[in-house]
C-alpha cells in the first residue's frame, strides 16, 4: 500500500515536472494537472494510510481514519480544477490572439518599435 | 465588537456579488458602490488598526469552533497594519481606474477588484495555514481576471505565463502544507508553533523540508531571485491600476515569510537554524542587485518599474533576513513605503503611456508629454522615493535597513549591495526621466524649426484636450502619503518596533488563539450524546 501510493505520487510528480518544462502551453497545462493530482494523493496520505476505517465518529468503532486530509483534498481538488479551467481559457485566448502557443518571451519584446519618422525627430546639435 | 475582524473579508465578498448580480450593466452604479465599499473598508481597517495598536490580539473563531479544530482569524499589530496599508491603497487605485477609464475597457473590473481585496485581506488576517492557502487562491484567481482585463495579445500571453507560474506555486504550497500536517497533525499557526517547538531536532527531516518548501512558496510570491521570472512581464503587461494594486501582492509573500518564520519557525528554533543566513540573505541581495541592474537595462518604463519592484523586494527581504526586531521594523517600514512608491510609479507610467501616443512606454525620443511640468514633477518625486534618495521615505527606509544590518554577519555585503544598487537605480531612473522629459524638448524645438511637420499638429491637438483630474489626484495622494511617511517617520517606527516586538514574543499570540473558548469535540464518553447532537447540527448547518 505504502509503496503503491508513494510510487504513484512520485511518478505523477516526475511526469508533471517533465511536462511543465515543455515549450508549448498545452503540455504545460497537462503538466500542472498531473502535479495537482500528485499533490492531491500526497495530501490524502498526509493523514496516514488507514484501510477500511470510517472518517466519522461512530459507536462501536475504535479505528478511525483522519478526516481532515479528506476535507483538505476536497478543497484542493476544487481549487485546482477551477484554476485549470481558467488557464485553459487564457491559453486558448492567447493562442487565438497571438497565433502561436509558445510560452517563452515573444519576439516583439526583443525589438524596439520605432515611432513614425515625423514624431521621432533628430537630436538637436 | 469582535465581528469587525471578519468584516474586511465579508464586505468585499458581498459587494463583489452585488456588483456582478445587481449592478452588472450600470457602470456608474458599479463605480459608486465600489468606491463606497473601499472607503468603508478603509474605515474598518483603521478601526482594527486602532484596536490592535495597544497590543491586544483579537481572535475571531469562524463557526465558533475552538482554535485547533476551527479556522481562526487573528488581528494583531502586523496583520492589522497590512490590512490598513491595503485599504489605504485600494480606494486610491480605484479612483485612478475610474478617472482614467480603465474600468470600462473590459468586463467586470469592479467585482474582480473587490474579490482581489477579499483575498488579500483574508491572507493577512487568517491564523490557519491551510486557510492562508485558500485566501492565496482567492487573491490569485481574482488577479488572473484583472491581469487580462481589457485583453490584447501581449497581455494574454503574459497572463498565461503568470497563471502557470502561480499554479506551480500553489502546488508547491500544497506539498508544503501536506508535509507540515503529516509531521505535526495540525495546520493552525499557533498550534503549529507549539508542536514544532516540541519536535525532536534529531528526527526532523520532514519538518525541515516543509520549512524550506514554505519559504520557496513565499519566495515565489515575493519574487526572490531564482523565482522572480513571472514578475517583470506580468507587472509590465497588466493594466496600470491592476499593476498598482499588485504592489501589495509581493508584500503578501513578505508577510508570509515574516509571519511563518517568527511564529512557527522562530529564529532560535534549532531545526531551522541557518535557513536565513545561508539562503534567504544571499538570495535577497542577489534579487536586489538584479532588480537594480534591470532598472538600468530596461528599455521600457513599465519594465523598469517592474524591475524596481524586484529590487525593492530584495531590499525588504535583506532586512527580513537579518531577523532581529530592528530588521523586521526596517522591513515593515520599507514595505509600506515601497507599496505606495511602486503604485504611484505604475500609475504615472500609465499616464505617460497615454500621453506619448506613438512611442508609448518605450524609452525613445518623442514630443513632450502634455501636462509636462506636473507629470514630470510627480515622476521626479516618485523616482526619488523609489531609489531611496533623501529627503523621502525611501531614504529613511534604507537607513533603517542598513542600521539593522549591522547585526548581521554579512553586514558589508548588505551595505555594499544596497548602496551600489541604489546608485545604479538612480542612474537608471535619471536616464528614463531625462529621456522622456528633457530630450523631448529638444525634439520639440527641432520640430518647431520645421513648421510643416505633421507632428506639430498632433502635438497641438493633444495640448488642447482637457486631461481628467481624478488620475492626478490619485497619484498625488499616493505621493502625499510618501511625504507623510517621511514626516511621521518617528511615530511610525515606534509603532513598527512595537509590532516587531510583538512578533518576537509569540506566547501572547499562542495563548490568545488556543485559550479562547468555543465549540469543541468532546472526548468524554459521558457527553457522547450531547456531542453527537452538536456534531450533527453543525453538519446540517453546513
What does this structure look like?
- The complex is a heterodimer of chains A (125) and B (542).
- With 125 residues, chain A is mainly alpha-helical.
- In chain A, 61% of the residues lie in helices and 0% in strands.
- Chain A starts with a helix and ends in a 5-residue tail after the last helix.
- Mean pLDDT of chain A is 81; it is low at 115-125.
- Chain B has helices at 7-21, 27-52, 77-99, 109-125, 129-147, 153-184, 189-198, 205-222, 230-237, 240-246, 249-263, 275-297, 301-322, 325-355, 372-387, 393-404, 411-448, 454-464, 470-487, 489-504, 507-514, 528-541, and strands at 58-61, 72-75.
- Chain B is globular, with a radius of gyration of 24 Å.
- Classes of the chains: A mainly alpha (125), B mainly alpha (542).
- At the A-B interface, helix 2, helix 3 and helix 4 of A face helix 5, helix 6, helix 17 and helix 18 of B.
Amino acid at each position: 500500500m505504502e509503496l503503491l501510493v508513494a510510487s504513484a505520487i512520485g511518478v505523477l510528480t516526475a511526469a508533471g515536472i517533465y511536462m511543465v518544462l515543455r515549450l508549448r502551453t498545452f503540455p504545460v497545462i497537462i503538466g500542472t494537472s498531473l502535479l495537482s493530482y500528485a499533490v492531491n494523493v500526497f495530501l490524502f496520505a498526509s493523514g496516514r494510510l488507514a484501510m477500511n476505517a470510517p472518517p466519522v465518529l461512530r459507536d462501536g468503532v475504535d479505528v478511525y481514519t483522519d478526516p481532515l486530509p479528506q476535507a483538505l483534498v476536497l478543497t484542493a481538488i476544487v481549487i485546482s480544477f477551477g484554476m485549470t479551467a481558467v488557464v485553459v481559457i487564457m491559453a486558448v485566448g492567447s493562442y487565438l490572439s497571438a497565433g502561436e502557443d509558445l510560452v517563452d518571451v515573444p519576439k516583439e519584446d526583443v525589438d524596439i518599435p520605432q515611432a513614425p519618422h515625423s514624431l521621432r525627430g533628430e537630436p538637436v546639435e | 465588537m469582535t465581528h469587525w475582524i471578519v468584516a474586511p473579508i465579508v464586505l468585499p465578498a458581498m459587494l463583489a456579488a452585488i456588483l456582478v448580480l445587481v449592478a452588472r450593466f450600470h457602470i456608474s452604479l458599479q463605480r459608486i458602490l465600489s468606491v463606497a465599499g473601499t472607503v468603508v473598508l478603509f474605515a474598518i481597517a483603521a478601526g482594527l488598526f486602532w484596536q490592535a495598536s495597544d497590543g491586544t490580539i483579537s481572535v475571531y473563531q469562524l463557526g465558533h469552533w475552538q482554535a485547533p479544530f476551527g479556522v481562526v482569524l487573528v488581528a494583531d499589530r502586523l496583520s492589522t497594519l497590512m490590512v490598513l496599508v491595503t485599504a489605504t491603497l485600494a480606494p486610491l487605485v480605484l479612483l485612478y481606474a475610474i478617472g482614467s477609464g480603465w474600468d470600462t475597457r473590459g468586463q467586470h473590473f469592479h467585482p474582480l477588484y473587490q474579490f482581489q481585496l477579499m483575498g488579500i485581506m483574508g491572507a493577512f488576517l487568517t491564523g490557519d495555514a491551510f486557510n492562508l492557502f485558500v485566501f492565496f487562491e482567492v487573491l490569485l484567481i481574482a488577479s488572473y481576471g484583472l491581469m487580462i482585463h481589457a485583453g490584447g495579445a501581449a497581455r494574454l500571453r503574459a497572463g498565461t505565463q503568470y497563471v502557470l507560474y502561480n499554479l506551480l506555486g500553489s502546488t508547491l504550497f500544497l506539498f508544503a502544507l501536506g508535509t507540515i500536517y503529516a509531521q505535526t497533525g495540525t495546520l493552525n499557526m499557533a498550534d503549529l508553533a507549539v508542536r514544532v517547538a516540541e519536535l525532536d531536532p534529531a528526527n526532523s527531516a520532514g519538518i525541515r523540508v516543509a520549512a524550506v518548501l514554505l519559504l520557496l512558496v513565499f519566495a515565489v510570491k515575493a519574487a526572490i531571485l531564482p523565482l522572480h521570472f513571472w514578475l517583470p512581464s506580468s507587472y509590465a503587461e497588466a493594466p496600470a491600476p491592476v499593476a498598482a494594486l499588485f504592489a501589495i501582492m509581493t508584500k503578501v509573500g513578505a508577510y508570509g515569510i515574516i509571519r511563518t518564520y517568527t511564529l512557527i519557525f522562530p529564529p532560535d528554533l534549532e531545526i531551522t537554524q541557518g535557513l536565513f543566513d545561508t539562503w534567504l540573505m544571499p538570495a535577497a541581495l542577489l534579487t536586489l542587485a538584479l532588480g537594480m541592474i534591470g532598472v538600468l537595462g530596461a528599455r521600457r518604463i513599465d519594465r523598469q518599474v517592474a524591475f524596481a519592484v524586484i529590487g525593492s523586494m530584495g531590499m525588504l527581504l535583506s532586512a527580513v533576513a537579518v531577523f532581529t526586531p530592528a530588521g523586521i521594523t526596517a522591513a515593515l517600514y520599507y514595505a509600506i513605503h515601497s507599496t505606495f512608491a511602486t503604485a504611484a510609479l505604475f500609475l504615472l507610467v500609465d499616464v505617460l503611456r497615454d500621453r506619448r501616443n506613438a512611442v508609448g512606454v518605450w524609452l525613445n525620443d518623442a514630443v513632450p508629454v502634455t501636462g509636462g511640468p506636473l507629470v514630470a514633477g510627480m515622476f521626479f518625486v516618485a523616482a526619488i522615493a523609489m531609489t531611496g534618495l533623501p529627503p523621502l521615505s525611501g531614504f529613511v527606509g534604507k537607513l533603517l535597513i542598513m542600521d539593522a544590518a549591522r547585526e548581521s554577519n554579512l553586514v558589508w555585503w548588505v551595505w555594499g549591495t544596497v548602496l551600489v544598487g541604489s546608485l545604479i537605480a538612480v542612474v537608471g531612473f535619471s536616464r528614463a526621466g531625462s529621456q522622456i522629459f528633457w530630450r523631448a524638448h529638444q525634439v520639440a524645438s527641432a520640430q518647431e524649426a520645421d513648421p510643416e511637420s505633421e507632428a506639430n499638429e498632433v502635438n497641438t491637438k493633444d495640448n488642447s484636450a482637457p486631461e481628467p483630474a481624478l488620475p492626478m489626484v490619485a497619484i498625488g495622494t499616493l505621493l502625499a502619503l510618501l511625504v507623510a511617511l517621511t514626516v511621521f517617520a518617528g511615530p511610525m517606527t515606534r509603532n513598527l518596533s512595537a509590532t516587531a516586538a510583538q512578533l518576537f514574543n509569540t506566547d501572547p499570540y499562542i495563548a490568545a488563539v488556543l485559550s479562547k473558548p468555543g465549540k469543541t469535540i468532546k472526548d468524554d464518553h459521558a457527553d457522547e450524546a450531547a456531542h453527537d447532537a452538536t456534531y450533527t447540527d453543525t453538519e446540517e448547518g453546513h
